[in-house]
Prior knowledge:
By secondary structure, this protein is mainly alpha-helical. The protein folds into four domains: about 1-100; about 105-335, Rossmann fold; about 340-410, no CATH class; about 425-590, no CATH class. It contains 37 helices and ten strands. Helix 15 (about 340-350) runs parallel beside helix 18. The longest helix is centred in the N-terminal third of the chain and has 35 residues, at about 65-100.
Amino acid sequence: xxxxxxxxxxxxxxxxxxxxxxxxxxxxxxxxxxxxxxxxxxxxxxxxxxxxxxxxxxxxxxxxxxxxxxxxxxxxxxxxxxxxxxxxxxxxxxxxxxxxxxxxxxxxxxxxxxxxxxxxxxxxxxxxxxxxxxxxxxxxxxxxxxxxxxxxxxxxxxxxxxxxxxxxxxxxxxxxxxxxxxxxxxxxxxxxxxxxxxxxxxxxxxxxxxxxxxxxxxxxxxxxxxxxxxxxxxxxxxxxxxxxxxxxxxxxxxxxxxxxxxxxxxxxxxxxxxxxxxxxxxxxxxxxxxxxxxxxxxxxxxxxxxxxxxxxxxxxxxxxxxxxxxxxxxxxxxxxxxxxxxxxxxxxxxxxxxxxxxxxxxxxxxxxxxxxxxxxxxxxxxxxxxxxxxxxxxxxxxxxxxxxxxxxxxxxxxxxxxxxxxxxxxxxxxxxxxxxxxxxxxxxxxxxxxxxxxxxxxxxxxxxxxxxxxxxxxxxxxxxxxxxxxxxxxxxxxxxxxxxxxxxxxxxxxxxxxxxxxxxxxxxxxxxxxxxxxxxxxxxxxxxxxxxxxxxxxxxxxxxxxxxxxxxxxxxxxxxxxxxxxxxxxxxxxxxxxxxxxxxxxxxxxxxxxxxxxxxxxxxxxxxxxxxxxxxxxxxxxxxxxxxxxxxxxxxxxxxxxxxxxxxxxxxxxxxxxxxxxxxxxxxxxxxxxxxxxxxxxxxxxxxxxxxxxxxxxxxxxxxxxxxxxxxxxxxxxxxxxxxxxxxxxxxxxxx
Length: 752
């Protein structure tokens, strides 16, 4: 069994979607069954030995002591084997807790390098690729102008952080994907590794993806997952480091950022890792926190002699200051892609039937040269220009028309985007504005089904009446035709600035098809204040994209309840509640079972108005949720992403019990354990105040300060250990006077 697990680990590619979970389940089920089977085998061996029925027994009768020694030896070996299987099970549990479905999503949707491009990155450094930026720009810095490309030298020898910088749309993500997946990368790293195992891993930030795709937590989890996947023996060491810092025991159901950072630090400070690691981290400018946070983390990680890091980003001042000091440790992408742009432009035009009819005409050749000359290294600009010129060919434009069309194209992306939007048919202007606003208010790409229904309903604000079931096809053949129809509508409304993408591994289902902006720079442009105000004016002053998405999602949930739809609904409904103080009528369209699930999600999202109104109209839902999945709503509130004393107060007022048992402890005990392990993050003054207020509430409603939690202390001892003594006196004193206070006088019982 261990051999099978080892073979699976060696072959593991990180799957997408749900496929990893099936792999983990397969291995976990096998491991879980081993102890019982081994115990049965040992018992059978003992029983057979007593009756003399032992396979492969020696011909001569053995003494009872010989038989006992054999049994003890086998028992010890099997016990060791059981311990190993339990260790493997723990490793799998940690890997599963770190994994998240979007871990490779951004990298998978980044376009693959066009053929015969990007290979220059592996040149030996004796010469540079064709520069697209005029040489005079670098006359003030001869060192930068004349320095050869040193990327291969960095792969082979250096431990410093290497930086790939470039303008928006210059192809940074595509190049990083090319490098991380190319066999030459591993080949060049052999010299640096000095014969040791090499692991190449990557992480792609995405500002339009899920929270984990753009946050520090997501970065930590991705890095640890890839390290532990390659070297599972490091897991026990990392967990041990947590036990000394956070009184950590076992594997939590939710990691805190502090715990993840502590494990990364423990790994990076290990004397010699079992493997050498090369990390390629794309899109530092898409990280949602302060640049200093991610910079500090990268340098701490790179302190390990077994880890080297290559990053990419736009040339923000903070990144230039940090990574741009040594010309041998960075490259400016738009200076090096002239040949790539020429190849791309040439192939794009020559793949068009009409252009091929004029291959011998020098005027068409000069058109290609002019595109390359004006590109300034920005691939996205080239892509849009080629699309415009090919559209012109489709309209039978003459060469002179194409030359004039090209001359009218602005040299910068933002002006180009504005020109494209203004070129849309006036009839579609309202729909175009609404399409852009729908995607701008969505934190990630929007499922095509949600986008389509939202555009069709045109209910803003919501009327409160449930719409008819959306007519979305279910069969693959009809679905394909429907997607093509939606693509044509998108092209007419947005001129290619919004496009349809299919999720790898889920591209044949309705939910594997999404709409998203052509490029991050499109979103950046549309988010500028004056552009967004113009879009809102065109869409109508009362149009609210959050409400439109909620109406669409609620209609779709009635057709096909899915978790990600419920999460989308809660995200947008929560924003409407916070910004406008209302609960949307569409939330009443859902069936009873969905209401239970929605209520739990609303508790997690901190939607106090919706939770209060829902429980007021039907208090039994508090227990209905518990009946559905056994986890008390109060427990959800205490671990919520948006920790809210107001939410805790609401649930307690409606009858939630902090001393209710859940699993191996009570709701109160689990919260105190979380506090003891550092999960509450009370080093933050705002979080400190929130947790203090929640403790007052829980104690006031009967939480037991003498309850012994998993860390081996009473709740009172943990609280005293983590809070200032004046606050401890306030905690146990204020609880007496709180409206929901129980009969016990905590002040007398636990006076400081």
